[in-house]
Amino acid sequence: MGSTTLRRGLRRAGILLLTLVTGALLVFLAMKAAPGDPALSALGENARPELVAAFRRDHGLDLPLWQQFWAWISGALTGDFGRSLTLAGGVPVGSLIANRLPVTAFIGLYALLLAAAISLVAGTIAALQRGKAADTALTSLAVLGVSMPDFWLGYVLVFFLALNFPIFPSYGFVSPVDSFTGALLSGFLPALAIAAPMAAVFARVLRAALLDVMHRPYVQVARSIGHSGKFVFVHTILRNALIPYVTIIGLQVRYLLGGVVVIERVFGIPGLGSLMVDGAFGRDYPVIQACALTFLVIVLMTNLAVDLLCTRLDPKARA
Amino acid sequence: MTEQSPRAALSRRALMGAGAGLASAAALGWPRGPALAAPTTLRAAISGYNVINTLDPAVAALIPEYYVIWSLYNGLLKLDAQMRPVPDLAESVTVAGDGQIEFKLRQGVKFHDGSVLTSDDVKFTLERLLDEATKSPNRSKVSAISQIDLPDAQTVRLRTSAPFAPLLTFLSNARTGTQILPRKAFMADPAGFGRKPIGTGAYRLRSWEPNQALKLSAFADYFGGAPRIPEVEIPLIAEETSGVTALLGKQVDITSTAPFADIPALEKRTDIKVMKQPGLNTRFLSLNNRKPPFDDVHFRRAVSLAINRDVLVRVVLFGEGVATPGLIPPSLTAAYDPAPKPLSTFNAARAKEELAKSKYGPGTKGTILTWGSGWWKRTAEVVLAQVNQVLGTQLNVEVTEANTVFARIRAGDYQAGTWGWLGMIDPDEYSYDLLHSEGWRNFAGYSNPKLDALLVQARQELDPAKRGTLYRQSEALWIDDMPVIPLFCSNIHNLLAGNASGFTQLPYSNFGDQFASMSLG
């Protein structure tokens, strides 16, 4: 048993590392294949050809691709992600990431919590009120939630809740390090904009799963034993329905990161997402690669966590 | 099964707790965090850009870098509202008959580190710009200087190898790179100077979060008197639209730009102020004169004649600009020629005549490069629709991003593309650089010996009136060949909160230079 777990763990770690290196290589090649030039971002449209050439030379951009990748990956393995080329000329990328990761983590978790909270309530009500007005209303709302682009929803939220009814700030973000309530308040609109489409997906999955489980024989058995309706719902129905629900939450983390990228820019949140967008526009290769790698780690870690959690929720998978 | 119930309970509790926390936070109102400070702080947002790589004027290249540089430094001169160079660090300027220029420096001007400005600092600044190793994008602005003499600590004498009319304009505190640096402070840490700038300006840099915000504080020893507002916070807002919502939501007091589409609605509001005027910029269709179909002068003329520029201004800029017959923008009044030119005025019949003379006929294919999702893309789309409709051509649009378009235009890997320049302050930059056969922005590959001679003559002509006439002649000359297709010049905008005042807008999109004269409430 122990050695199987160890072997399984080692295999997982090996796959993880391989995925990371492959991912990094793919991002590197994709960025290099895209036209554009960091020198033009850093030096602006007034850059003379000789200055552009000098910039490329100074930053090793004229070296063969494999040498550039090797220089980057060997640095990254020792924790040195290089220096920004075009966003914050010369600032170490590691420190940019370190400053911004907590902000993105905060907004991401905030959005995830909001989405989970909304969907737990909405999905449960929809399932319990199946076919009734509440179900129809919530299901329609979910379709709307999925169809709305998050940046658009962001502006709509700002329009209503920051400009028409000035409850939340229309722009800017207070770091949770400076003021936690400030962060909750200034992060609410962006988190909600990211959460809405996710909540819609979660709620639909939860509703379907609850309905599926409700009519299983073991639920009828539990009822016939004499457990109360509430007890059966919490311990039998909800618990079994949570497995697809948790899985979908894990899968949606990828979309969450996508949402973060867009929404951070709209709201001016100094997170990893806006850094990556700026990096991509500016062709700041070290910044993009480090951001992509960080996102990749987050996704892989989430997948791992979901796997483990599902194993815990589902006794059959533990065997 | 029982081990799971605390988890379920926890999530319910957590959920309710989170909800309650939000409700109470909302009831308490927005804490006055750093983004919302007391009126002793001017919150001057740079909108539409969020990259500042350096605050060293000699190597700065991007507009947002200059927005800040203008508040930290001074030039020997500055530009007045009519774009004329007037004294700043220099108290007086004398141009001698032999072309020698003498600057008398203001007495007792201090740098932020407390040291006193001398003529040696001016010499240092100029020599550093001239040094190839500095890699300044603005080297050519001063490359005519052949000799710098310092008779005393308050006097600088410049000699040029040949007369160079734009020199005084280029020594102003604009997008020029000629802002004066302290030699001693710079030499103490040359590599770090761009991050820890020291100038003579009304404000000095206090802190800087990359891509996020900068903070400035008033320089008490500023030679123009300590500014009224003690602190300036400069959020860097990447999205122009977010800049508008930040201002409307009272998170900032002024923005550096505003989206064209929002202007008509914003102008109706009474709680904010919209400042605007025609800017120093030129927007055109860049054509690759070396590749089909734009290698044919008749085809180029036909396309130009098929474009209705007034419609472009209406639908693309929402009226926030003017159709321009040439490349020199209207704000350069001495050199601008307002007379419409037949070849850059919509005329469908003549367009078809030109097409008939061209070796390319209706059905000709071609690609216009453009980028993004905003007005640049719309410019390309409207141009394409107009041209295809009038000429029956099959032009199409390729949308990518600005960096790619610029890289491809520079490399000659294009047929046509939307392009433009902004913030350039002398007609020489809009003419010589773009159309002289050796002009470094001449990506069209255009060459006309007559025009070359005229543009050299114009940059050497020191009499402003005569010089203006030469530029008017030059525009009339090249327009026949239509190497690029001029489209329009757009307005520049600043949005101000209702209680903000004291900002004088100049056509080159000035910004930081006005902080010192601003007040709130």
What does this structure look like?
The complex is a heterodimer of chains A (319) and B (521). Chain A is mainly α. Chain A folds into two domains: 2-93, no CATH class; 100-318, MetI-like (MetI-like fold, Orthogonal Bundle), CATH 1.10.3720. Chain A has 14 helices and no strands. The longest helix of chain A has 39 residues, at 229-267. Chain A is globular. Chain B is α+β, with helices and mostly antiparallel strands. Chain B has a domain at 281-491: Dipeptide-binding Protein, domain 3 (Roll). In chain B, strands 1, 8, 9, 10, 11, 12, 13, 14, 15, 16, 17 and 18 form a twelve-stranded mixed beta sheet that branches. Chain B has a four-stranded antiparallel beta sheet with strand order 4-5-7-6, with helices on one face. In chain B, helix 14 (427-435) packs antiparallel against helix 15 (449-460). Chain B starts with a helix and ends with a strand. Chains A and B meet through helix 2, helix 3, helix 5, helix 7 and helix 8 of A and helix 1, helix 7 and helix 13 of B.
